From TrEMBL:
InterPro entries: L-xylulose/Carbonyl_redctase, NAD(P)-bd_dom_sf, Sc_DH/Rdtase_CS, SDR_fam. One of its GO terms (molecular function) is carbonyl reductase (NADPH) activity. The keyword Signal does not apply. Keywords: NADP, Oxidoreductase. SUPFAM superfamilies: NAD(P)-binding Rossmann-fold domains (SSF51735). Gene3D superfamilies: NAD(P)-binding Rossmann-like Domain (3.40.50.720). This is DER reductase. Belongs to the short-chain dehydrogenases/reductases (SDR) family. It comes from Halcyon senegalensis. The gene is Der. Homotetramer. One of its GO terms (biological process) is glucose metabolic process.
Amino acid sequence: QCPGIEPLCLDLADWDATEAAVGAAVGAAGPFELLVNNAGVAVLQPFLEVTREALERSFDVNFQAVLHVSQIVARQMIAQGVPGAIVNVSSQASQRALHDHAVYCSTKSALDMLSKVMAMELGPHKIRVNTVNPTVVMTDMGRINWSDPQKSAAMINRIPLGKFAEVDDVVNSILFLLSDKSAMTTGSSLMVDGGFLVS
């Protein structure tokens, strides 16, 4: 849909490779005005069975990568005097405990607070930072983790609108937070949860 976009394939948990690839991309195209941090993993394990590997991988991708990529892009924005907007894709799981989600909930809670600190520190540079916090979204990862009808029914029954989110529901919320329509919004979390958190 967007032929001008040049994708970069890399492991965001690899700090040095990310620094080189994203830094070069920003330098070549740069500076970016908009950033969406959307990479994420969900390794679901009961609390008593959480492994070190799952913990490290989840924090590497869901938290550390957001911090690192945002640093690279924001430094370029500041150096060039460019105002901008950053949207971090969080989750309703940042604010509600879910079975087998000890690590995932923790990474998303950490991401919400990171985003607030980023908003506070980057605001003077005219860079806004917000999160979108969706319920289950029907992506490939969402289908893998919520394909069991019994499990999904229990979750859907807690959503007042009675359904999971579609990709466009999240995309449209991100576009709003990137746009001038939200020019006075920073440090906020936009719930895209069908009312899950009020149920």
